[in-house]
Amino acid sequence: MAIVKTTFFCQNCGTQYAKWQGQCNACKEWNTIVEEVIQKPEKNDWKTPTTTVKKASVPLRIKDIDVSKEPRLDTYDGEFNRVLGGGIVPGSLTLLGGEPGIGKSTLLLQISLKLPYKTLYVSGEESQKQIKMRAERVNPNNNNCYILTETKTQNIFKQIAALQPDIVIIDSIQTLHSDYIESSSGSISQIKECTTELIKFAKETATPVLLIGHITKDGHIAGPKILEHMVDTVLQFEGDRNHVFRILRAHKNRFGSTNELGIYEMQGSGLREVTNPSEILISKKDEELSGNAIAATLEGMRPLMIEVQALVSTAVYGTPQRSATGFNAKRLNMLLAVLEKRAGFRLGAKDVFLNITGGITVDDPAIDLAVVAAILSSNEDTALQKDFCFAAEVGLSGEIRPVQRIEQRILEAEKLGFSSIFVSKYNKISLKNTVIKIQLISKIEDLVDILI
Ligand code: TYD
Ligand code: MG
Asked: Are 185 and 145 spatial neighbours (Cβ–Cβ below 8 Å)?
């Protein structure tokens, strides 16, 4: 192999070393020194005479840059297209992160099986047989999808040059290995080097590349943060493994908004797109149960009706328990304190449990009012009318605060057949001719008066 020069750099202060050491002499940080390639052969691994490579770029006036010619590749998956902002941009690098077992491989395999283009699915994690078995569950009839089990980038590029795929999927970036660097797969320097090679390939051949990335315990994509800066789009696949819903969000998107959200349901035959999430998240029940309230929330740009369940009971032990699933526990404590102080409910000696159904986590503040309503309903043991819903934030002095994009929430609630929606008096609403009754309230006491 031609000359490859590598050196060691401290990731914290940038000091260069000839060999690896545990602590940086300059900044005294530990374990920050990693190997990096500083010179490598000019030859590009994926280039063959048949591959067309774009010529070097020249400066263009911004008004002369033609964006209309930016065709996007349709992924034939409505939710995936929506999150990407309308499809995959040629030559882009997309990173899909998520916890193990959440369904990243299933999602991308399923998409590659739907595509009518020539797709190369490179797996460093599973054997071809395993992938075939999974493909059989999802969509067995596809003649355009090729599976390669390989981890060395140089070999992958060799296969790419021979196959000339329209789209490349890598499962996962942490298993890749480049010959230019000696450290093991998954190390910071390997991930950086492999990603750099893939970016060069993607940009020069205009082939989109989708990468799967693992997530560390604290929710970051394993490997350097720099990986997120290098790629064009970072998608996150999340959800509770014990529930069927999966949410796909864009954390970074150079070609679209990061507000869009895709929802899937994990089934025996792969992931199903959920086009109308609200209908599934609200349990259809005939009798009214105490402790349940419906919140009109927004997830990204999409309105989502979510069911909140509360259980308030007398504490058996000295210290009352407070527990929240899918909702911030500190915020729950705050809302309980507001209820105690402003509305005179003695909740100090009660256990309070709160649950957002469907296994989803909500941080939209507009859910506050539904949480309060569910707690009140459970505390009084009287059911709320099941066609009521709520959308407002609750402040520390018990005031009901306005939330953004209230009209969209109201329209969603109306579409789903709710009879009343409780919102803040201070929200500006210019909707006319709504069938749904809009109940304007300004204080938490107003809510107590109406409900109880
Ligand atoms: P996987 O895609 O391997 O997750 P990741 O790549 O993110 O680690 O798979 C996930 C889980 O999904 C696995 O536990 C089995 C389940 N699954 C289904 O429920 N239905 C299916 O059709 C498939 C293919 C998987
Ligand atoms: Mg996987």
From this structure: no
Q: Which atom of ligand 1 is nearest to the CA of 134?
A: 24
Number of domains in the chain: 3
Pocket of ligand 1 (CB under 6 A): 98, 100-106, 134, 137-138, 266, 268-270
- Per-residue pLDDT reduced to its tens digit, 64-108: 877 666 688 899 999 999 999 889 999 999 999 988 889 999 999
Q: What is the pLDDT of residue 51?
A: 46
| Angle subtended at Cα 185 by Cα 179 and Cα 191, rounded to the nearest 5 degrees | 85
Whether 303 and 394 share a structural domain: yes
Indicate the angle between helix axes 329-343 and 444-451, nearest 10 degrees. Answer: 80
Looking at the fold, whether 338 and 271 belong to one and the same domain comes out as no
Q: Hey, whose CA ends up nearest to atom 21 of ligand 1?
A: 270
Atom from ligand 1 closest to the CA of residue 100: 8
Q: Which structural domain range is residue 410 located in?
A: 280-451
Domain match, 235 and 348 both: no
Q: Is 243 exposed, middle or buried (0-12, 13-18, 19+ CB in 10 A)?
A: middle
State how far the Cα of 65 lies from the Cα of 185, in Å rounded to an integer: 39
pLDDT per position as a tens digit, 389-445: 999 999 999 999 999 999 999 988 988 888 999 999 999 888 888 889 999 999 999
Residue 69 pLDDT:
61
First to last CA, the chain: 79
- Say if residue 191 is in the same domain as residue 305: no
Measure 246 CA to ligand 1 centroid, in angstroms. 11
pTM: predicted TM-score of the whole model, two decimal places:
0.78
Q: Which residue has the higher pLDDT, 242 or 405?
A: 405
> What's the CA dihedral at 56, 209, 149, 97 to 10 degrees?
140
What whole-number distance in Å separates Cα of residue 131 and Cα of residue 268?
15
Q: Which atom, in ligand 1's list, is nearest to the CA of 269?
A: 22
pLDDT > 90: what percent of the chain?
49
**C-beta of residue 342 within 8 angstroms of C-beta of residue 395:** no
Q: How far, in Å, from the CA of 195 to the mean position of ligand 1?
A: 25
Q: How far is the CA of 266 from the centre of ligand 1 (A)?
A: 8
* Residues 164 and 234 placed together within one structural domain of the fold: yes
Residue nearest to atom 2 of ligand 1 (CA): 103
Q: Which atom of ligand 1 is nearest to the CA of 102?
A: 7
Find the ligand nearest to 236 CA.
1
The last residue of one of the domains, among 230, 257, 275, is: 275
266 & 379 share domain: no
Q: Compute the distance from residue 394 Cα to the ligand 1 centre, in Å.
A: 39
Residue 86: inside a domain, yes or no?
yes
With respect to residue 46, please indicate whether it lies within any of the assigned structural domains: no
